[in-house]
Amino acid sequence: MRSTHAWAADGSTATPSTALHRTLVERRDLRADDIAVRVDYCGVCHSDLHALHEHGAGGGDDSEGPLVPGHEFTGVVTEIGPAVRRFRVGDAVAVGNIVDACLACDMCTAGQENFCREFPTLTYGGVDRRDGTPTLGAFAREYVVREDFAHRLPKGLDPAAAAPLLCAGITVWEPLRALAVGPGARVAVVGLGGLGHLAVKLAVALGAETTVISRSADKSEDARRLGAADLLVSGDPQAMASSQGRFDVILDTVAVAHDLAPFLDLLALDGALAQLGYLGPVTIETTDLLIGRKKLTSGGSGGMEQTAQLLEFCAHHDVVADVEVLPSAQVEEALERLARGDVRYRFVLDLSDLDGPG
Q1: Count of domains for the chain
Q2: What one-character DSSP code corresponds to residue 49?
Q3: Domain CATH code at residue 230
Q4: pLDDT tens track for 194-216
Q5: 274 and 317 housed in the same domain
Q6: How far apart are CA 240 and CA 274, in angstroms?
Q7: Can you tell me where the transmembrane regions are (predicted)?
Q8: Running DSSP on this structure, what letter comes out for residue 278?
């Protein structure tokens, strides 16, 4: 085994702001098809907050082991296994929220390893499918990963700003591609946060006429800076009524439970609403779908092929996340501010400070 410094939670608190402490964690020795990655930058995702809350709810039972969050990261290859063919030491790479899958089921063979029938191995909070050990995430200085689940980071992409593409970016990219968004499409993005701002940038880069839907007009300037043609205020009944049937695709990135009916009403004939931010139960009236033959869909993460295509597209179109980079020692601040929505639009941790004493 090999060890690396990381920020870990031990399950003794339900408060994310105090859940993480610096410690040494173990990584496996490299298998034949593994690469070791020096983690340089890792995004901070809302799912990290959820995972920390759930882990802390154990009430101090440390038997479940440490939790190291972090599942959207970039770094540099420092070592390779003897069977590795795609990477060399020194290569810049990017890794997302899945690090293994069966690679044999219909989903995997279709390039959708994120929907693996045996469930993909998660970057953290999962179980290694070969030795049964828990996976620990990338709020750490090193990560060991199967080469098939790492991506070459294209030249020209800022590694800090590119890190969120591996989770937030691919989460909105797959439905945009599945729904054939391109020139002439009318797209709306509900919510302008970590997911939403990348959805706007990608929809615009694909050639779509893009609108942001927000509760107030406060983000109008930001929406236009990101490339949106308009901002529609969801709290304005007159504006919403006049936009009935206006959009072909709506990407809903709001992370809390909310009524979908007002947004379904905005869809044109055969339009689709992709629910991406909130993953809990929803209730809809069938007639809200029936009238206009509308579709309700979703998506989660992405397959390896689509993720590679996303990275190349972003390099070609100069699309990266708007990030605030913090030294990893300020991870508590990042989590606290993320919990209250004080970020535009993604925190990224610089893990280089883990090289120092501590």
Answers
A1: 2
A2: H
A3: 3.40.50.720
A4: 999 999 999 999 999 999 999 99
A5: no
A6: 19
A7: none
A8: -
Range of the domain at 102: 2-167+302-355
Q: What is the CATH number of the domain that holds 97?
A: 3.90.180.10
pTM: 0.94
Q: How far apart are CA 30 and CA 131, in angstroms?
A: 13
- Report whether 93 contacts 150 (CB < 8 A): yes
- Could you tell me how many helices (H) and strands (E) the chain has, helices first? 11, 17
Looking at 280, 298, 316, which one is the last position of a domain?
298
Tens digit of each residue's pLDDT (9 = 90 or more) over 247-301: 999 999 999 999 999 999 999 999 999 999 998 999 999 999 999 999 999 999 9
CA distances in angstroms from 74 to 43, 166, 284, 310, listed in the order given: 9, 9, 39, 15
**Nearest-angstrom CA–CA distance, 93 and 114:** 19
Q: Binning pLDDT at 50, 70 and 90, where does residue 58 land?
A: low
* Contact present, 95 and 137 (Cβ < 8 Å): no
| Dmax (CA) of the chain | 64
Looking at the structure, tell me whether residues 139 and 273 fall in a common domain: no
